[in-house]
């Protein structure tokens, strides 16, 4: 489903420690995620005891806040020139694609908007993909991670259809991608592979899955 790495990769002993730390920190973040989610759901239950009106008001408030936040955050990111070797149209027209124009001039794209204004599947694909090490900047990936982390917590439990599985994968992938970007040339692993490992560690920390996580991530990627 997601093209991560379709060529032979070389692994070295020096990559073991960063991967182990990535997994440990990802598991801790997953536990923190569950802790905060439990606190938020308890607060929501207290609000819901006041009646249906409060349920609707809470859902409307969360929706308005989320919309304003997501539309405003890309203004913090700078416009990037379209890659000369891009395999698709840049900037992208429509909902799908890697390069969202947003407020940028012709021939440029907004990397944070490319993550936010996308389907969850395309956002995961962008984070997992190979040869995209320079498409996203540190600030944009970090902001996207923090946004996904907290918005998925606050939007879960309101009177609207919502799930945690895909948001957890997106959050973990952005976490892993950010770690891979921080390591840079100090690691031989592709940033997309770090995103896969981050998604697996965060998914394992939140859902308490072990073998199932490995199977799911293997089935999602090539």
UniProtKB/TrEMBL annotation:
The primary location reported for this protein is: membrane
Q: Which Gene Ontology molecular-function terms are recorded?
A: chloride transmembrane transporter activity
Membrane topology listed for this record: Multi-pass membrane protein
Pull one GO CC term from this UniProt entry. Answer: plant-type vacuole membrane
Under what name is this protein listed?
At5g33280-like protein
**Tagged with keyword Ribosomal protein:** no
The record's section on Pfam families has:
Voltage_CLC
Where in or outside the cell it occurs: the entry states: Membrane
